[in-house]
UniProtKB/TrEMBL annotation:
<comment type="function">
    <text>Catalyzes the phosphorylation of the position 2 hydroxy group of 4-diphosphocytidyl-2C-methyl-D-erythritol.</text>
</comment>
<feature type="domain" description="GHMP kinase C-terminal">
    <location>
        <begin position="199"/>
        <end position="275"/>
    </location>
</feature>
<dbReference type="InterPro" id="IPR014721">
    <property type="entry name" value="Ribsml_uS5_D2-typ_fold_subgr"/>
</dbReference>
<dbReference type="InterPro" id="IPR004424">
    <property type="entry name" value="IspE"/>
</dbReference>
<keyword id="KW-0808">Transferase</keyword>
<dbReference type="InterPro" id="IPR020568">
    <property type="entry name" value="Ribosomal_Su5_D2-typ_SF"/>
</dbReference>
<keyword id="KW-0547">Nucleotide-binding</keyword>
<dbReference type="Pfam" id="PF00288">
    <property type="entry name" value="GHMP_kinases_N"/>
</dbReference>
<feature type="binding site">
    <location>
        <begin position="94"/>
        <end position="104"/>
    </location>
    <ligand>
        <name>ATP</name>
    </ligand>
</feature>
<comment type="similarity">
    <text>Belongs to the GHMP kinase family. IspE subfamily.</text>
</comment>
<keyword id="KW-0418">Kinase</keyword>
<dbReference type="Pfam" id="PF08544">
    <property type="entry name" value="GHMP_kinases_C"/>
</dbReference>
<protein>
    <recommendedName>
        <fullName>4-diphosphocytidyl-2-C-methyl-D-erythritol kinase</fullName>
        <ecNumber>2.7.1.148</ecNumber>
    </recommendedName>
</protein>
<feature type="active site">
    <location>
        <position position="10"/>
    </location>
</feature>
<comment type="pathway">
    <text>Isoprenoid biosynthesis; isopentenyl diphosphate biosynthesis via DXP pathway; isopentenyl diphosphate from 1-deoxy-D-xylulose 5-phosphate: step 3/6.</text>
</comment>
<dbReference type="GO" id="GO:0050515">
    <property type="term" value="F:4-(cytidine 5'-diphospho)-2-C-methyl-D-erythritol kinase activity"/>
</dbReference>
<dbReference type="InterPro" id="IPR036554">
    <property type="entry name" value="GHMP_kinase_C_sf"/>
</dbReference>
Length: 284
């Protein structure tokens, strides 16, 4: 038997870092949603008790460092599954981009293996398992739009943002999430939180207000280390995107655009600046 799962990319419409916790993680409050740029996972049963990962992407680990591998091992251990699985990852989401590609693959593996092995694990339990794999994984289990708190695992579902185009552009640099949080200094200055305003704009269905409300407290940290992220933001704004922000710990910058007529101008303008540009829709 075979099962297939899509693993969409996430963007952060807000990302407030509240304080550093005793356990080393940061307490956050953020609005996350998904876009229709997705990896695809094919999972098939193996007679031998083993986990095999393959991918067309030559630049991700295919061993126990792969988050889909870790998801399979976790579910096998926890539910005492003796069958093996072959997982093929068709990667479309840029890697180490701030788009939760690995986390979404892990969440898709949890969902798919639950079906493949007929384990009947509840969504809540899948989210709890996901938290063991990474802070963004619980959100990726069901996706949609949510406010995430704690270190990212406490989820409150909210309505979807107004539909629009999303232009994603990743400069050719790799950013480590641990490194960005490590450089973040919570006491440095008063920072404006944005989650409450983003939530309000979504509830009102007010696109322009949403664009004005967005904020990401990790942006300054990444921009300090990689000035090209600011250049990319400025470029996207100049080209006419309505709202522009970095996603997660970066370096991907996204632009929200309401008018289809503007999209190709923004896409073409950005392609002169970096190769990794995608035009997608919010997943609503
Ligand atoms: C930046 C975001 O992607 C925004 O959605 C997430 O907060 C990070 O999610 P993630 O990549 O799944 O993060 P994890 O794999 O759990 O953690 C990677 C590293 O980031 C730091 N980290 C992560 C999440 C968090 N709330 N506080 C942290 O300080 C920790 O040093 C951790 O070792
Ligand atoms: N299935 C996977 N897909 C992509 N990267 C993976 C995967 N499994 C493990 N990795 C490793 O995880 C690291 C982060 O990749 P990923 O694409 O998940 O980052 P990200 O989008 O910045 O994540 P986040 O937004 O959750 O911080 C990479 O260095 C990569 O080698």
């Amino acid at each position: 038997m075979k099962v297939y799962e899509k693993a969409p990319a996430k963007i952060n419409l807000s990302l407030d870092v509240l304080y550093k916790r005793e356990d080393g993680y940061h307490e956050v409050e953020m609005v996350m949603t998904m876009v229709d740029l997705a990896d695809r996972l094919e999972m098939s049963e193996l007679p031998r008790d083993t986990i095999i990962i393959s991918s067309q992407a030559g630049y991700i680990p295919l061993d126990e460092k792969n988050l889909a591998f870790q998801a399979a091992r976790l579910i096998k251990d926890r539910y005492d599954v003796k069958q093996g699985v072959y997982i093929h990852l068709d990667k479309k989401i840029p890697v180490a981009a701030g788009l939760a590609g690995g986390s979404s693959d892990a969440a898709a593996a949890l969902r798919g293996l639950n079906r493949l092995w007929k384990l009947n694990i509840s969504t809540e339990e899948l989210e709890t398992l996901g938290a063991e794999l990474g802070s963004d994984v619980p959100f990726c289990v069901t996706g949609g739009t949510a406010i995430a708190r704690g270190r990212g695992e406490k989820l409150e579902r909210i309505g979807n943002p107004p539909q629009c185009w999303v232009v994603l552009a990743k400069p050719p640099i790799n950013v480590s999430t641990a490194d960005v949080y490590g450089r973040f200094n919570a006491n440095k200055q008063e920072r404006r939180t944005s989650t409450a305003q983003v939530r309000e704009a979504i509830e009102l269905g007010d696109f322009q207000r949403l664009c004005r409300s967005m904020g990401n407290m990790l942006e300054d940290v990444t921009v300090d280390a990689y000035p090209e992220v600011r250049q990319l933001k400025d470029c996207m704004r100049r080209l006419g995107a309505d709202g522009v922000m970095m996603s997660g710990s970066g370096p991907t910058v996204f632009g929200l655009v309401s008018k289809e007529s503007k999209v190709s101008r923004i896409y073409n303008g950005l392609r002169g600046f970096c190769k990794d540009v995608h035009v997608v829709r919010m997943l609503t």
